[in-house]
Amino acid sequence: MSATAARITAVDTYDIRFPTSRELDGSDAMNPDPDYSAAYLVLRTSEGPHEGHGFTFTIGRGNDVQVAAVDALREHVVGRSVAELCADPGALYHALVGDSQLRWLGPEKGVMHMAIGAVVNAVWDLAAKRAGKPVWQFLADADPAWLVDQIDFRYIADALTPAEALELLTKGRQGAPERAAELLRRGYPAYTTSPGWLGYSDEKLTRLAQEAVADGFTQIKLKVGADLADDIRRCRAAREAVGPDIRMAVDANQRWNVDEAIAWTKALDAFDPYWIEEPTSPDDILGHAAIRRGVHPVRVATGEHVQNRIVFKQLLQAGAIDVLQLDAARVAGVNENLAILLLAAKFGIPVCPHAGGVGLCELVQHLSMFDYVALSGTTRDRVIEFVDHLHEHFLEPVVIDRGHYRAPTAPGFTAAMKQDSIDTYTYPHGAFWTAENTEARA
Asked: What are the residue boundaries of the Mandelate racemase/muconate lactonizing enzyme C-terminal domain, all occurrences included (predicted)?
């Protein structure tokens, strides 16, 4: 079959879960026992080797609900022309967001919106593979006018117009080849959350923090918010381990009311926190603005649970955040994240993405690298989160070198999972979970 005649033949979905709660990996004040999971999909095509892989991240129970949401989108995808889909991912984005009956479940937020993101990201993976480029380069090389056409400006045009977006992207192309070469040479700055999970002992925290500095990281992050005395003790141990020159962020994972967030953050002032992350509900724009005023000069960061471009717009308009933390899989994929990156550029707010989880590092690196090469043109005060969990399950896992993400060179989103891992950890009938269930019945 010719490339022009190729079609999407199937959307295969998988409920993949890893038992990370057993070692308290990923534990924080709001989520004490996460089992890192992915609602994973593969777009099969009639043109042989080309497939599109995508997923969204959850933490265990409910991943089956997320998979069901992806399944509900299948009829919009199967049978579509591969060439047309890859030439205009925005057309599918609009079709998925615009399904009025499914839209009722949001609109543009929650489980359905995350499912759309998984499918849309799979399309970008497929498109970049067909072009023979990693997604960051595929985006950086794209015509600015085409990128603007990929963005939905509905509800955000009062803050960012298509003309402004085109101007930002056109200006961002200046010097892009030199920045791409520098990216390939040096990589993109990272910070690590690996030392800071709330369930870790002080000894493990100290050891991992010291190892992070030795590995070249210049910023670490600690989870806080369950018990103030514990947080003071842990922050003291971490600061003593890394010294005064390493940035140390803290993350409350939405645990506090507004007044509590201000008081708790001030109680940690002695340890020089660089930012306080998710201090309250991700939907509370005015609350974040009040916290930002109350904790200055500590920065306020949020975004991993912000559900769409509209809430990001309001956080920026209200002067509520110092650091924008987009997520590759929370919103409706690359198209919506382009809007969010452009909003951040318009307002002059640095983007430091959320990562970790299952494959989020592999995905989000491409968005930051595109932003550096062809939009903001800088890595100043910008870092991508890194968590050293579960990368061994991916065909092209992230590589960290001297505290930097090494730029991927393989085509696509470089976030395809190994088939053996899919077979082993698909719930409940994968080899791992079947053995678990057999043991439980014995």
From this structure: 202-298
Six-digit token string for 149: 């056409």
Predicted confidence (pLDDT) per residue in 122-158, tens digit: 999 999 999 999 999 999 999 999 999 999 999 999 9
Q: Do 238 and 222 meet the contact criterion of CB atoms below 8 Å apart?
A: yes
- Evaluate whether 36 touches 25 at the Cβ level (below 8 Å): yes
Contact (CB, 8 A) for 198 and 226: yes
Contacts of 157 (CB under 8 A, 6+ apart): none
pTM of the model as a whole: 0.96
Q: What is the mean pLDDT of residues 277-304?
A: 98
418 flagged as catalytic = no
Catalytic residue, candidates 129, 133, 221, 223: 223
Are residues 165 and 151 in contact, defined by beta-carbon separation less than 8 angstroms? yes
pLDDT digits (tens, 9 = 90+) for 258-273: 999 999 999 999 999 9
Q: Which fold has domain 176-420?
A: TIM Barrel (3.20.20)
Q: Residues 6 or more apart from 23 whose CB is under 8 A from it?
A: none
Q: Which CATH class is domain 3-133?
A: alpha beta
From 76, 354, 366, 389, the catalytic residue: 354
Nearest to 371 by CA among 399, 398, 357, 352: 352
**Residue whose structure tokens are 């092209």:** 396
Per 3-state DSSP, the chain is made up of helix, strand and coil in percentages (nearest 5) of: 45, 15, 35
Domain ranges of the chain: 3-133, 176-420
Task: Measure the CA dihedral 244/246/252/258, to 10°.
Answer: 60
Residue 354 a catalytic site member = yes
